[in-house]
Fold this sequence. Notes:
tRNA (Adenosine(37)-N6)-threonylcarbamoyltransferase complex dimerization subunit type 1 TsaB; 5-stranded mixed sheet; Nucleotidyltransferase, domain 5; alpha/beta; transferase activity; transferase
Amino acid sequence: MTIILAIETSTELASAALLADDRYLVRELSGTQTHSQGILPAIQSLLAEAGIVLKQCDAIAFGCGPGAFTGIRTACGIVQGLAVGADLPVIPVTSLEAMALGAYQQTGCAQIACILDARMNEIYWAQYHLTDDACQVICPPALTAISLVTLQAVDPLTLAVGNGVLLPPELSAFTVTPCMPHAREIAQAGMRAFRNGAVFSPEQAQPMYLRNKIALTTAEREQARLSA
């Protein structure tokens, strides 16, 4: 039996999951202030419910971003510490791929474009083609203004849209599925990667950052207000 532990803390909804072949156990945390304090107890709760210890897992999958800077950093630090202590490999999974998997399972649509709020009037986005066995990247994760999103023309196409995203008129014609990155799909992608041998050492648990700047200046905020 293959066991994957997964965590996802890149947005306001933090989650942990344990996937043992086809059986899921899940914990969720709400509120970004609780991520660093709450994720380890959530993991301990999952392991206790499953009746196993960490060393019995085969790998730890984690949401490596893009997303909130603090949340991604939290995930990498926790995963590195757990993986080193238990001598386990790690599996990074992008938060947008997790969204795509979730939307695919909800809708059955193979073509998924994911849009996640990046604040500062920008979004993270990517486009994927999914099957039951694979997730192909059509447009890799990028940071941009939502008006500059350039989707590959496919039909049908579903938009997986995270909290706080307002779609412009040019995207309103697509089918929209509300979706957030979740450890359940991180675990699923991690299981697939593990079976394909795509695992890494703990020191390779690194975040995916698409921006260096994490806040607007006062002048930039005022300019955005005047332009609204």
